[in-house]
Amino acid sequence: MKHILLSLPYGYGALEPYIDAKTMEIHHTKHHQAYIENLNKALEKYPELYEKKVEELLANNLQVVPEEIKHAVRNHGGGHANHSFFWEILKKDVNIPANFKKVIESEFESFDKFKEEFSAAALGRLGSGWAWLVKHKDHLDIISTANQDSPLMEGKIPILGLDVWEHAYYLKFQNKRADYIKEWWNVVNWDKVSDLYEKSIYSDRN
Known about the structure:
Layout (H helix, E strand, L loop, with lengths): L20 H22 L11 H9 L4 H22 L9 H11 L2 H14 L4 E8 L2 E8 L10 E7 L6 H4 L3 H8 L5 H15 L2
Antiparallel strand pairs: 1-2, 1-3
Helix pairs in contact: 1-3, 2-3
């Protein structure tokens, strides 16, 4: 089955005033849709790969993907996976659960220090890319990836991700990426992030 664009679990204006409705609409219906269309096109020569989830295509540095389409699947499959993840971890006015906050504090000294380090990774990514909080082995790491590279390619489990491509913020913030990052902290769905962390712990035990 070909990959399709799923509807967002909220309206395009649900994140106002922090992320504007027009940016969300264009980001979802134009940019994410284009990644899906180009991923499906790349897989046309190998229709058996339509049966695999995008996460399976990206795993182990795209091990199951034929060499001639790896570049396209890396870019467009990564774009599809990253954006599908991104929409899920956005919601206004969600406080971080106490248990997960303790995890963050144990890994990064304090929640404020975590936010500082994560924001620095997002701001410091030269050009287009992402900042991530990932589960890797038995600990959490803050990393950034270029373009649409996914942590899944390196066997790392994404827990939190921030899109710092200009298309994610330019309509509202122009070149002020730091302002976008600051406002984004207001729309992190900490309940979902905490749930993703708990699931990563569970997967380690099985």
